[in-house]
Design brief:
Helix content: under 10%
Structural class: mainly beta
Largest sheet: 4 strands, antiparallel
Number of helices: 1
Low-confidence stretches: none
CATH architecture: 3-layer Sandwich
Order of helices and strands: EHEEEEEEEEE
Distance between the termini: 6 Å
CATH superfamily: Rieske [2Fe-2S] iron-sulphur domain
Number of strands: 10
Shape: globular
């Protein structure tokens, strides 16, 4: 799997994406929502599986969750599972790694 460098190190990542915020990451044509939680950084597809809302405009909440900005559907950032019990498909998740190379996402 190819990796895409997001930040040169963890301090830069924390500065650019503060706790409980999101950022839109573009890797080629792919748009990804990067979220910063108390458990670290998580990456999910940027489109809500309900009606394609931009997840990077959603709200990150405790428990490692993100809430869709349009209809308040809640998804797990750990595995992308829709937690609101509306039956929506899960968001796609992307592994994040932190090493001497920096903060990278696996595509």
């Amino acid at each position: 799997m190819p990796k895409y460098l997001l930040f040169k190190d963890l301090s830069e990542a924390k500065e650019k994406v503060p706790l409980y915020t999101t950022a839109l990451v573009r890797a080629g044509k792919l748009e990804i929502c990067l979220a910063h939680t108390e458990e670290g950084f998580f990456a999910v597809s940027n489109e809500c599986t309900h009606q394609r809302a931009p997840m990077h405009k959603g709200k990150v909440v405790q428990g490692c969750k993100i809430i869709c900005p349009w209809h308040n559907y809640t998804f797990s950032l750990r595995n992308g599972e829709e937690l609101s019990e509306h039956g929506c498909p899960s968001l796609r998740t992307y592994p994040i790694s932190i090493s001497e190379k920096g903060v990278e996402i696996e595509l």
